[in-house]
Prior knowledge:
There is one protein chain. The protein is built from 10 helices and 8 strands. It is α/β, with parallel strands linked by helices. It has a single domain (5-213), classed as Rossmann fold, CATH 3.40.50. A hairpin with a 4-residue loop joins strand 3 and strand 4. Helix 7 packs across helix 9. The protein is globular, with a radius of gyration of 17 Å. The relative contact order is 0.22.
Amino acid sequence: MRKLIIAIDGPSGAGKGTVARAVASELGYRHVDSGAMYRAIGWKALREGVALDDEAAVAALADASLIVVSNARVLIDSVDVTREIRTPEIDRAAAAVARLPRVRAILVAVQRDLGAGGEIVMEGRDIGTVVFPQADVKIYLDAAPEERARRRAQDPSHSGGPAAVSEVKTLLTERDRSDTTRAVSPLYAAADAIVVDTTRKPVQDVVKEVLEIVKGSGLGARG
């Protein structure tokens, strides 16, 4: 059977990570969280005292870094940063470095190499529009702002602990503004993407819906 490239995009809190991992597991495909790469670069920049708005310096840092993203771990230069990159501080750092065109060019090249052979479910904000515009299946997950904020507020890996929904909603609004207005690779649904609203839907139902879309593409899964 043909080895598919499945792109799952959407804003923070829409359920990309959970759904992408489950879909990849069901298909026997590799799951790659492209956002973890930007988080890892943001983490390293902060650690080394590199200004997040210094495009040349951050790009040089990204170019010299070895990032390994697996289903379970995120490594940068052999350092396991899986937990360290899931904090509000790194959320902001990732958003900052993601606005830098030279950094995006470096990481997009890495992402394309990872998915070149297919059998991959890659999630992010520009997978179906920039990284793999030729992806076999494109999904755009979305949800109501209040729902997205509630999910993030209840997720200690992102909120850093119990957080007020209103506070998290403000942070998500800022991230949405950054993602949708950046000059390079802004967040939006590709014209040929299928939009799935995850508001008030159990995860298993969303996963089932995405798998049905994959099957409906007529390409099938790995045999």
